[in-house]
Amino acid sequence: MTDSRRHSPAAGTASGAAPRIARGPESDRTGAPAPALRAPRARGGPAAAAALAGTLLLTGCGALPGVGDDPDRITVMTFAPEGTDATNMPGMPAMAKAYARWANATGGIDGHELRVITCNEGDTPRGASDCARQAVREKADAVVGSYSQHGNAFLAPLQAASIPYIGGYGISDDEFSSVVSYPVNAGQAALLAGQGVQLADECRRVAIVRPDTAAGDSLPQLLGAGLAHAGRPAPKDVLAPDNATGYAREAARARDLAGAGAEGSSDERPGCVTAALGERTETFVDSYRRLPDDGREIRFSSVSGSVDQPLINRTGGRQGPYEGAFVTGWYPGTDDSRWDLMKKVIGEHAFGDDRIDPADAGVQTTWIAYSVLASAIRAVNSDTVDSRRIIQALDSGTEVTTGGLTPTLNWRFTDLTGFAGYPRAANRSVTFHVVRGGRLVSQGKGIDDISKIL
Asked: Which residue windows are transmembrane per the record (predicted)?
């Protein structure tokens, strides 16, 4: 095959040869994961170019005939639940669209145009499976930066079609074992185990409020692993429905369990209540703050995805219920300069889409996931990029740097160390934060390798 990118006069070099990877000024200045850029090819003159521009940014359901057959275009899907009675992550597909607009406005990824299709997963196994099967029908080259707790429902169709699942949110255990999954964080397991370590020296007793679901069943054990690492007892387990409109009963029980035995104890540390309810955490805390004061000191704690800066802001900041809360996360704080490029892209290409919040862990995960995709496409180094070539690039040891937002990522089988039940966890770090003065700020160093605990 003739490489028209190498021999196109539009490449702008004296010999007519364009470098295989051209980095834009943002990559050079910030070190963040900007896509490699090259002017995209337009076949068939101005009319064809106009038609291409019209279809390039189409998103949503419904296939365009043959879109997966154009070697110049890379088609990917991002799916997440939206408009459900439980967890909703609308910022993830919205971030994916903004990333595509940015990449295409600056020449594509290694000369390839990026087409993003989105799907509402609906927070059901059927919805997750339907999204995956749509990706197969539309000949998607990857599913990137998505969210679903129904891992088996969507990974089985993707694995059968050899479509890589890059940078899922990490809410399901299957994401850390499937051979076509390339996680960018250590998932809920790392957050809960890390939270146990964070709370071990701060709290006398710990109670965890978590969803009464299959995905929630392992959370007490994970939190307990972190506590046990520091020689502390297991947390008390409080089950809660994941679609409730109020949690008065669960809040009262959690407070009683966390505060039990305070009278007459020489241990003056407070009790702690950990809530791992996703976006329902706000509902739980609202119920908790309505309980009559019983004089016991109880501190609140949670994990990234359940508590973030926007939530703290809209609930009163330093005067709100989250002041003093402990929060365990995957990534640096939102005020860290390593997020500057992502914020710039949101500012210039999200067009005011209020679904995208740079402090949202889902948005952050999608940004990092698309950075991995860009690195894989550059590693393929070809006019033709498809799902199997992307898998081969990632499996062969392509090292992905994310501008310091994560450790260097590498999914070569011989390099994966992971931890029990999570063999494909290439990023095993967690970060510690605390709410002080209404701001979510760093608390200590965090943990570089959670596998030492798990």
From this structure: none
Nearest to 24 by CA among 39, 12, 13: 39
Nearest-10 crossing angle of helices 387-395, 361-380:
90
Compute the distance between CA of residue 30 and CA of residue 28 in angstroms, rounded to an integer. Answer: 6
- pLDDT computed for residue 41 by the predictor: 43
Q: For residue 67, which amino acid is it?
A: V
**Which residues lie closer than 8 Å to 246 by C-beta, 6 or more apart?**
283, 286, 287
Per the CB < 8 A criterion, the answer to whether 50 and 89 are in contact is no
| Alpha-carbon span 191 to 213, nearest angstrom | 18
CB 206 within 8 A of CB 235: yes
3-state secondary structure string, 149-187? CCHHHHHHHHHHCCCCEECCCCCCHHHHCCCCEECCCCH
- Whether the CB-CB separation of 221 and 252 falls below 8 Å is answered with no
Burial of 43 by CB count in 10 Å (0-12 exposed, 13-18 middle, 19+ buried)? exposed
Q: Are 272 and 300 in contact (CB under 8 A)?
A: yes
For residue range 102-118, list pLDDT tens digits in order. Answer: 999 999 999 999 999 99
For residues 133 and 421, give the distance between their C-alpha atoms in angstroms, rounded to a whole number. 26
Alpha-carbon distance values, 286 to 201, 235, 310 (Å): 27, 22, 16
Write the CB contacts of 221 (distance below 8 Å, at least 6 apart in sequence).
none
- Measured between alpha carbons, how far is 72 from 74 in angstroms, rounded to an integer? 7
Are the C-beta atoms of 425 and 186 separated by less than 8 Å? yes
Q: What is the DSSP letter of 112?
A: B
C-alpha distances in Å from residue 35, one per residue of 100, 104, 141, 381: 10, 10, 17, 13
Q: Which residue has the tokens 């409730």?
A: 244
Instruction: Give the mean pLDDT of 36-59.
Output: 42
* Residue pair 35/106 in contact by the 8 Å Cβ criterion: yes
What is the C-alpha separation between 171 and 155, in angstroms, rounded?
13
Query: What domains are there in the chain, each with its CATH number?
Result: 50-186+336-415 (3.40.50.2300), 188-329+431-452 (3.40.50.2300)
Single-letter amino acid, residue 163? I
Please write the tens of the pLDDT for every residue from 177-226: 999 999 999 988 899 999 999 999 999 999 999 999 887 898 999 999 99
Q: For tokens 């154009």, what's the residue? A: 70
Answer for the pair 429, 438: CB distance below 8 angstroms, yes or no.
no
Cα separation, 123 vs 150, in Å, equals 8
Give the DSSP H or E segment for 96.
Answer: helix 91-105
